[in-house]
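Researcher: Re-running this chain for the archive, since the previous output was lost when a drive failed. Same request as before.
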Amino acid sequence: MIPLAVLGLMHPALAEVAMATSSVTVVSNANLLRRVDIRARE
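Model: Regenerated structure tokens:
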């Protein structure tokens, strides 16, 4: 959304909120994956 804000197609505050939400989502998913054992089970 940041490129849309740069082009003037979106309000910069919306792009800021979307970027923050994206960062929180990535960190949350990384923490969830840390708990899961993804090694091959025999």
